[in-house]
Specification:
The structure holds two protein chains of two kinds.
Chain A: H1 5-20, H2 28-38, H3 57-81, H4 113-116, E1 119-120, H5 134-138, E2 144-145, H6 154-164
Antiparallel strand pairs in A: 1-2
Chain B: H1 3-7, H2 9-51, H3 54-70, H4 81-99, H5 105-115, H6 123-141, H7 145-154, H8 161-168, H9 172-196
Helix pairs in contact in B: 2-3, 2-4, 3-4, 4-8, 5-6, 7-9, 8-9
Classes of the chains: A mainly alpha, B mainly alpha.
């Protein structure tokens, strides 16, 4: 014969109430107090080792003055070690290889002249030189200035550039 | 007014407030100690009803009071300390239960046999009672979590449905409906278990 649902319900309630009414073990409160005593607490900024009475205002004032002197002295020490800057420092960056603003050398050792290209300057009349005919002198001369080379390549290309610089 | 108070009025106020802070801290710790004395056993029973292990239940109660210690500045804002503490320990035990592995049935029976009151019962009768209660608790574990929690808390006579709702963070009507469902499901499970034996 199966038990009725009411009996099952009562049985469950009885068990749960029994579990809920079980007594706590002895000494539980004492152990909890001990755990709370040893637990870390928030730090207290001011904890006077000696009880300060209401008449010891002089001691409080002296302590306050000492704190002010320590703080001020430390600040002065830091301030006196800071060097005064008279003018802002300007850091000069080295000039880039290309005057025309075109392609850079990217640190390459052998850069053909065509990378930078010729730089044309203004037409300037050429002063008559002795030994040269008037017809030749009448023709305008365009001076083509080779582009500035980086210092690192100056030695190798000095002969090349002077020989190959076109002159019209 | 003394000379030092004239020169340093602010500093004397800071010093006196430090003394007052120490008094306030001492008062809060006394209040916490009173809560321990008053509610430690209640919290233990709540924890044991879920964890069913003495040492785990005691750890949970300790953890609850450590949390209260960390938030002791808010003690004055709490209206009902009992329900507030039960809610804290309830959340702790639910977390622990979720993280714990499934306990074998023999452990439950052994633990219950140790803690159940004998009341003149023989060892065999005590073992049989422990087995019966362990079986009921196993059926309880098969309930859905929401119904199981309400049914567990309803066993505590000192908790009303309003207080159970406050612990669980639900409405009173939800407590009643879940309790009704829980009891029906529990009866079905126990009846089914008995019929299969």
């Amino acid at each position: 014969m199966n038990p009725s649902p009411n009996f099952s319900q009562q049985s469950a309630d009885e068990t749960l109430r029994l579990i809920a009414s079980l007594p706590a073990p002895d000494g539980l409160s004492d152990r909890i107090h001990a755990a709370l005593r040893t637990a870390p607490r928030n730090a207290v900024v001011l904890r006077w080792p000696v009880a300060i009475s209401s008449h010891s205002s002089f001691l409080r004032g002296a302590a306050a003055a000492a704190i002010v002197c320590v703080v001020a002295g430390g600040g002065w020490r830091i301030y006196s070690h800071v060097p005064a800057q008279t003018s802002p420092q300007i850091i000069q960056m080295p000039q880039s290889g290309s005057l025309s603003g075109g392609f850079g050398s990217a640190g390459a050792r052998h850069v053909p002249d065509t990378l930078n290209g010729p730089v044309l300057t203004r037409h300037t009349p050429v002063q008559p030189l002795p030994g040269i005919s008037d017809e030749t002198q009448a023709q305008p001369v365009k001076a083509i200035v080779p582009p500035a080379k980086p210092v690192a390549r100056a030695h190798k290309h000095a002969s090349h550039t002077t020989a190959s610089a076109p002159v019209h | 007014m003394s000379a030092s108070q004239t020169l340093f009025p602010g500093w004397t106020e800071i010093a006196s407030s430090a003394v007052h802070d120490a008094d306030r801290q001492a008062a809060k710790e006394q209040a916490l100690a009173a809560l321990v004395e008053q509610y430690a056993s209640t919290l233990y029973r709540v924890a044991f009803s879920v964890l069913r292990n003495q040492s785990d239940a005691e750890d949970a109660v300790q953890e609850a009071f450590l949390r209260v210690l960390r938030h002791r500045d808010n003690l004055d804002e709490v209206r009902d300390h009992r329900v507030w503490l039960i809610r804290i320990v309830w959340n702790i035990v639910l977390d622990r239960k979720r993280r714990a592995r499934t306990r074998p049935e023999t452990d439950d029976i052994a633990d219950l046999a140790r803690v159940l009151p004998s009341h003149g019962l023989s060892a065999e009768q005590l073992a049989a009672a422990a087995q019966h209660h362990a079986h009921v608790l196993r059926c309880l574990e098969q309930l859905p979590p929401k119904e199981r929690e309400v049914l567990t808390l309803s066993a505590f006579e000192e908790l009303s449905s309003v207080e159970i709702a406050a612990v669980l963070g639900i409405t009173e009507s939800s407590v009643r409906s879940r309790l009704f469902r829980a009891r029906n499901l529990m009866a079905d499970l126990l009846q089914h278990a008995r019929s299969t034996r």
